Amino acid sequence: MRHGGQILVDQLLIQGVDRVFSIPGESYLAALDGLYESSIDVIVGRQEGGVAMMAEAHGKLTGKPGIAFVTRGPGATNASAGVHIALQDSTPMVLFVGQVASDQRDREAFQEVDYRQMFAPLAKWVAEIERTDRIPEYVSRAFHVAQSGRPGPVVLALPEDMLSAEVHVQDTYEAIPAKQMVSYQAVRDVIERLKSAKNPFVIVGGGGWSTQAAIDLGRFASSLGLAVGTSFRCQDYMDNRHPNYVGDVAISPNPELAERVRNADCVLVLGARLGEMTSSGYTLFKVPNPKQKLIHVHAGPDELGRVYQPEIGLACRAADFVAVAAKLTKGMVQKSPIHAKESYTKWQEPFETPGDVKMEEVICHMKDVLPDNAIIANGAGNYAGWIHRYYSFRSYRTQLAPTSGSMGYGLPAAIAAKLQYPEREVICLAGDGCFQMTMQEFGTALQYGIKLIVIVVNNGVYGTIRMHQQRDYPGRPSGTTIVNPNFADFAACYGCSGVIVTKTKDFNSALERARSAKKSTIIELRTDPTAVTTKSTVFKSF
């Protein structure tokens, strides 16, 4: 006889789970009891939003579902931010939510929420386990759904009495995600289309990639001489030094790159959704029939033809496609897209921005000194534009950022990254507004002895919104000014180091000291808000 909490934890062990992220709650005490003597590493966070983001980042880094436990009501609503990230970023994740006892359902009991309705548009599957003896079944299905097809989040609600009840039940087996095979003939057809095109272009992104897939992509691109661009915050899917990598097709892309996509006669989209970000607000392709010959490879068949009608649509994982394509094109040698690469290189040349701390120099220095496997974690905000433009990602899964544009992601993601790869350097880059959304998770890093470097870009405004205001309602800023604490003092409160940088020349030494320190460091950059609000080249670019 086992209680439901023990049965649940046993299923997680069978699924290979070695770490979960949680905020404790009385609604799932039996699950906490099940974790007590297990080998699973339980990371206790400070707020459910941060915990869910950690789980999502873990899923991104490992390709296996990230696991989070939160309590009912406020816990679940807080955690919804991380579920939304997992959905839009195609990340495998399972969120377990405590629920009121089954005999109290539908009375609006304390913190009661109907999670099927709440999470329906945010997750691939939402369910409530009503019988203890069905826990293995539900957990197995959750892991299959989260990893099959287009990866994504699953939410399982756990009624209190269901978890505490004791039953005899047989354990499940480890989930084996459904395979989506791609035929060699289908890949040959695509290759022939690309070979016959005069101006082909490839856009890559989405979920389900791997280090090997990134290598296969490089070989495939080299064989056919294809120009490759990445979708929003997927810049690490191909070594940016590769002669065929020509930039990111995302927010405010290189104008020459955007024109190259518009003028391409054949566009192969591998794994990416052709949403607002990838299509520059649905302007790179004509809706619904692009003038370019569109070939779309995506693991989710529902995505094919959602906005744009492809001439060829293949419902398979991009990683499987490039593995076959690399084999079929082995030995072929085509010239790399020299002009496109030169345009990308020129685009990376920094231009001077206003203020005494110049972000273009900060990011360029990071690019020069950080190792190839260093992980850059960031959330959303105007500051991220400098990363997109000036940093070079040299290996897969070194860019940890939400394609959903969620603020507050950087710090929780950095914690998950450092837990998974303690030997690697992890840098959290956040804006002042972005950092303050989850900065309480700095306590989580302290609790588990995680050494982080956090760079806070402090300009005293919600920069992206101020930029849009300046564009649409010039000279009328409203609701975008923020008064900030001393972030260096904040680090000191946790027994860590903090430094304020007011001159660009002081950043290099500050970063060097932070890299050699034994504890976490917060580097606060005091930047000029006009770097994002003036109608200058900065404004046009970011």
Features of this protein?
single chain, about 550 residues, alpha/beta, Rossmann fold, six-stranded parallel sheet, about 40% helix, globular, disordered C terminus
Model description:
The structure is a single chain. With 542 residues, the chain is an alpha/beta fold. The chain folds into 3 domains: 2-167, Thiamin diphosphate (ThDP)-binding fold, Pyr/PP domains (Rossmann fold, 3-Layer(aba) Sandwich), CATH 3.40.50; 184-344, TPP-binding domain (Rossmann fold), CATH 3.40.50; 348-541, Rossmann fold (3-Layer(aba) Sandwich). The protein is 38% helix and 17% strand. It is built from 22 helices and 20 strands. α1 (4-14) packs parallel to α6 and α3 (48-62) packs parallel to α4.
Fold blueprint:
Blueprint: E1 2-3, H1 4-14, E2 19-22, H2 29-36, E3 41-44, H3 48-62, E4 66-70, H4 74-88, E5 93-99, H5 115-119, E6 125-128, H6 135-147, E7 153-159, H7 160-164, E8 166-167, H8 184-196, E9 200-204, H9 211-224, E10 227-230, E11 245-248, H10 255-263, E12 266-270, E13 293-297, E14 312-314, H11 318-328, H12 338-347, H13 359-369, E15 375-378, H14 384-390, E16 399-400, H15 410-420, E17 426-431, H16 432-436, H17 442-447, E18 453-458, H18 463-472, H19 487-493, E19 497-501, H20 507-516, E20 521-526, H21 530-533, H22 537-541
Parallel strand pairs: 2-3, 2-4, 4-5, 5-7, 6-7, 9-10, 9-12, 10-11, 12-13, 13-14, 15-16, 15-17, 17-18, 18-20, 19-20
Antiparallel strand pairs: 1-8
